[in-house]
Amino acid sequence: MNFIQDPALPAQFSIEVCGSLDGIRQCMDLQRTIWDDPDEDVTPSAIFVVANKVGGHTLLAHHGSKPAGFALAFPAFRGDLRYLHSHIVGVLPEYQNRGLGRLLKLKQREIALAQQVPLMEWTFDPLAPRNAYFNVVRLGAIIRRFYPNLYGITSSPLHGGLPTDRLVAEWQVSSSRVQSALAGSAPTVASNAVQIVVPAEMEDWKNSGSRHAEEVQARLKMDFQERFAQGFAVTGFRVENGNGIYLLEHYED
After folding, report:
1. C-alpha span between 166 and 127 (Å, rounded)
2. For residue 82, what are the β-bridge partners?
3. What's the rounded Cα separation, in Å, for the pair 26 and 178?
4. Which of 28, 93, 140, 226 is the most buried (most CB within 10 A)?
5. How many CA atoms within 13 Å lie on the side-chain side of 128?
6. How many whole angstroms separate alpha carbon 181 and alpha carbon 175?
7. Domains plus CATH for the chain?
8. In this predicted model, what pLDDT tens digit does every residue of 16-57 receive, in sequence order?
C-alpha cells in the first residue's frame, strides 16, 4: 500500500459544473464503469437534476474529450448548520492515484466557499485505508461519526456482501487545518493518540469472503462507536507494514 504525492495531470484535463442531461448521463455511465454497479445501485439521473436545482452541484471531469470522473453533492442542514453533502465522487481506474479525485474535491471546495458554506461532509468505508489517507491527510478532514450498515446489504461487488458501515468525513473548508493539508503539511497528531487498525490483509479477506473480514468489521464498528462516544475524533492516519492506522484524539472545533 503506497500513498505517494500525485504527479501532475495532463494539461488536457478539465472540470466543468455539469447541468445538461447529456453530461448527467455521462456521470451515470461512469458509475457503471468505475464500480461495475448493477442498475439498481446506480444513482439515477433525476437525483442529479434535483441536486443541481436545489443548491447542490454535479461536476464532470474530462481528459481531452473523454469523461474521466465526476462528483455529486446536495445542500444539507443539521440544526442551524448549513453544509454540503458530497454524495459520490468517482474516477476512472486509469486516472486513479493521479490527483483527479483531489482536483474534484478542490472544485467542490471552491463552490462551497463561493456559496459561503463552511462545511462539506461525505461518508466512506472504514475498511478503505486509501480513502482514509486521502480524506484525513491529503484533505485535512476529521472524523467523529459512524453509521452502521448505512445503505443496507447491497448487490454491489464493491461491498463484498458486508454491511455498509460508514465513517463521516467533516471537511471544514476554510479552517487552518484544511488549508495546511492542502498546502502539503500532514496534520500534527499527538504521540499518545489512540489507534484503530485495519489489517493489511483486509482487502484480500473481503474479496475472498473470509470470515476474518466480518470479524474485523465488527471490531472496528465497536471501537469507533466507543471512542466517538468518549469525545474522540480521527485526526490522523498512517500506514505501517501495510496496516492502515486511524489516529484519534479528543477534539473540539
Report:
1. 9
2. 77
3. 31
4. 140
5. 16
6. 10
7. 12-117 (3.40.630.30), 118-253 (no CATH)
8. 999 999 999 999 999 999 988 778 788 999 999 999 999 999
